[in-house]
Amino acid sequence: MIAQMIKVMKSSDLGDGEMKEEIVNGVKILIAHAGNKFYAVESRCPHMGGQLAKGKLEGTIVTCPLHGGKFDLEDGHVVQWAPRTPRLLSATKIDKLIGHNRPLKIYPVKIEGDDIWVEI
Ligand code: FES
Fold it and tell me: Is residue 119 part of a domain?
């Protein structure tokens, strides 16, 4: 599939420190406003699918509401991997079930006037 720029929302609809889940081209994307920048990343946590839009945004760090995993919106890297994972299973078994930690997928964002465009 060839990537294309898609207009997602108005930048004025998302205040500084706010984030929102949008479906763009059939893909759930988290749009976030941090400082003077807007970010677009996959909206579900790569750990066990937590809805990041219901988490917390501090600067460019988003915290997953389920187990507290932290990711940096700048490049999607893992700041802290799921510190509140239930300890019912060993780390090895959990790794087999849900895979190793991985960063968030990020999408290029362009602002034109009051419009936020995302390349997907
Ligand atoms: S689902 Fe996000 S940290 Fe577990």
Answer: no
pLDDT in tens, 61-71: 999 999 999 99
How far, in Å, CA of 67 to CA of 88, rounded? 14
Domain range enclosing 44: 5-113
Structure tokens given for 11 = 């930048």
Which ligand 1 atom lies nearest to the CA of residue 49?
1
Q: What is the domain-level CATH number for residue 11?
A: 2.102.10.10
pTM to 2 decimal places: 0.89
CA distance 11 to 79: 27
Residues with CB under 6 A from ligand 1: 45, 47-50, 64, 66-67, 69, 82
For residue 64, report the distance from its CA to the centre of ligand 1, in Å: 6
